[in-house]
Amino acid sequence: MKAHHSIRALALASAAWTGAMAFPAFAQDASAPAADTEEAGIIVTARRREETLVSVPIAVSAFSGADLERGGAIDISDLANVTPNTTLEASRGTNSTLTAFIRGVGQQDPVSGFEQGVGIYLDDVYLNRPQGALLDIYDVERIEVLRGPQGTLYGRNTIGGAVKYVTKMLPQDFSLKLKGSYGSYDQADGIISVSAPIGDLMRVGGAFARLSRGGFGKNLTTGQDNYNKDIWAGRATFEMGGYGAPVLMRITGDYTKDKSNPRGGHRLIPGQASGAPVLDDVFDTRGGLVDPKQYVKSYGLSMNLTAELNDAVTLRSISAWRKDDSASPIDFDALPAVDVDVPAYYKNEQLSQEFQLLYDKGRLHGMVGFYYLDASADTQFDTRIFTTVAGLTAFTQANVDTETYAVFGDMSFDLTDQLSLSAGGRYTWDTRRANILRQSYLGGGSPVFDGAGIPFGAPSTNFRGEREFKKFTPRFSVSYKPTADHNIYASYSKGFKGGGFDPRGVGTNAPDLNGDGIRQDSEIASFLSFAPEQVDSYEVGYKGNLMDGALYVAVAGFYADYKDVQIPGSVACTVNVGGVATPSFCGVVSNAGKARFKGLEFESNARLGRDIFSGGDRLNLQTAIGFIDADYREYIANIASVPTDVADYRRVQNTPKWTASGTLSYNVPVGDGSVYFGSTVSWRSKTYQFEIPNPYIDQKGYALWDASLVYTAPSDRWSIGVHGKNLLDKEYKTSGYTFVAANPVTGAIINNAAGYPTPSLGKEGTLTAFYGNPRQVFVTGSVKF
């Protein structure tokens, strides 16, 4: 973090999450409160104040920690199967880095210099980078998934949506809980949660988790397990006040270390130089890169304060410091040869402060806020292509700093008991600073990765740049409630995400715009930078409790115009090395132009019956269906130095047209305890992994089947359950790498004389895929003291 900010103290604050939550298993925005309880509504904080799901005019899905645990959820990627138009998955080579898309907006490549389109919040603290953001589910109160821009309500502008991970508030009495799981592939998880009061107003507590699993496959070159899991995590909390007191202070520290092996990709074509065949098991790999040893560490400290100044005004302060470090040996071609091997380090640090002033009295409700973020993202990596030029390495070091300020607010006024109007706005100031160095080495890797390479020529890129971005983004909504159980709403919101610099770009490839034979800093800056993106989103919806609370329904229709879409990517390129045109690896970022999204979402929770086979039993059905027509209207690519609109040949990535799920659950009293049985079937239509369709790595439509059977003892003192994930053992791709020749306009892959795709970088041809988890069955038990 920059020196001139080091004197700032970590100010203190945190929102107190109150209210008992009673969500049915995998309950979404379609949670029917009465399906499992007789309560009038479920409480969420999507608009930074407590409201029922029916009342909030936002498409939001809510999941309680207790019912996620009952359904066997492992990490937040499980939520994507039961949330409309949402993709949450691990990014290619690790267990801990998140790829998130909501309604077509997101980011797949976790490179520094870019921020996610979907904001991830841990106890209201925005996680600036996706490393470490694939949060495991332990000690969680609830998770909320908000769809659509949320800039007037959340500290950092979230152009596509937000995922809120809310940990449990400490209980007032001593509590100890032990939980363990064992299952397929030697899965062995253990979680200890403990808390204790210190007097009447203070409490201390924490949770410790050990999460491990053997590999789904093997690296046949190194002998390591592939797709294994080796995670240590912990969280400690100090609380003072709350539980009726006007002030709550909450100080939380967390730490996660992922020591899992690197996840190697599965080659989809034979090696074009070695003739290495395609392996039979899609979870097996043969990559030879083992240095640096893979790890991801993420940790942070937050101080949250909520003070009720009077019966109408509440002040909140949310302060946080976070850091993550990771090392990744990325073997793109997944073969022993040093052919497109990329060892990499990522280091991220952030300091943030948010203030909120909330007003809630009579007919006026709302919030105004201020947000500050100071973040640095540092990247170092080698690109080794020894099979093309002996020992050629391109070393890149890129430091991208972000400093942002924002003021925002959102106010609602009840014109009558039935009609409410809301208006909000946000003004954002973003500053990006970049320092990018690219140096070639011959005879081995760079010294940063203990290589023996010798510097060759002057740096091809030695760039410093700065850009500023400012934007006002409004939000408006109207809500009509014929009764307290029904809500018809319409909203408009604008989302914004600042521009920046591609840390992998090669300055020597910048075009000489003025034709003077010299590449000025301004020309290099223009080539390496990308513009902000923005989206205008419109939504209409209905939410209601029907049939005396036996049926909850939420329907939303949305339309969005998405402009200057940021598309980070990696391609083969030619770089001038010592006067020789040499194949290499380059980052290519573009603002694609225009996209249009329109779609529908339907969520419901129906109590099909009760007292069917036994007194007190209940049969429920929860459904979630999403449809999105995502289409590029303009996509300008620079082909042979000629700007060309290739929109007809591009697709929106990680955004299937259809998502659907259904969960049938049955609860029945057994003695003084209860038995739960739940079965979920989810389906996703064809998914494009990148903007350019690729028949090798794109995934056709597929369905997954999960099931759980859980017994809970009286007073929830202990439980035991068995869970099955992907019970039909469906094989499906989630991501991939591709460096093969293709038509620059249509994207059609160009085959060689042998009938296989022609390598565009290296000799072997890089066309690899990563897969979702196979069938897993595990037993979980817990006990409380």
What does this structure look like?
This protein is mainly β and 785 residues long. Helix content is 2%, strand content 55%. It has a 22-stranded antiparallel beta barrel. Strands 3-9-10-7-8 form a 5-stranded mixed β-sheet. It has a 3-stranded antiparallel β-sheet with strand order 4-5-6, with no helix packed on it. The radius of gyration is 26 Å and the shape is globular. The chain starts with 32 loop residues before the first helix and ends with a strand. Residues 1-41 have low confidence and may be disordered.
Kindly list the characteristics that best describe this protein.
785 residues; mainly beta; 5-stranded mixed beta sheet; single chain; 22-stranded antiparallel β-barrel; 3 helices; disordered N terminus
Topology of this structure?
Blueprint: H1 33-36, E1 43-44, E2 51-52, E3 60-64, H2 65-70, E4 86-90, E5 98-102, E6 105-107, E7 118-122, E8 125-126, E9 140-147, E10 161-167, E11 175-183, E12 187-198, E13 202-213, E14 217-218, E15 225-226, E16 229-241, E17 247-258, E18 266-267, E19 295-308, E20 313-331, E21 339-361, E22 364-385, E23 393-414, E24 419-442, E25 454-455, E26 461-480, E27 486-497, E28 500-501, H3 521-528, E29 529-530, E30 533-546, E31 551-563, E32 566-577, E33 580-591, E34 593-610, E35 618-639, E36 642-645, E37 658-670, E38 673-684, E39 702-712, E40 718-725, E41 733-739, E42 766-771, E43 776-784
Parallel strand pairs: 7-10
Antiparallel strand pairs: 1-2, 3-9, 4-5, 5-6, 7-8, 9-10, 11-12, 11-43, 12-13, 13-16, 14-15, 16-17, 17-19, 18-42, 19-20, 20-21, 21-22, 22-23, 23-24, 24-25, 24-26, 26-27, 27-30, 28-29, 30-31, 31-34, 32-33, 34-35, 35-36, 35-37, 37-38, 38-39, 39-40, 40-43, 41-42
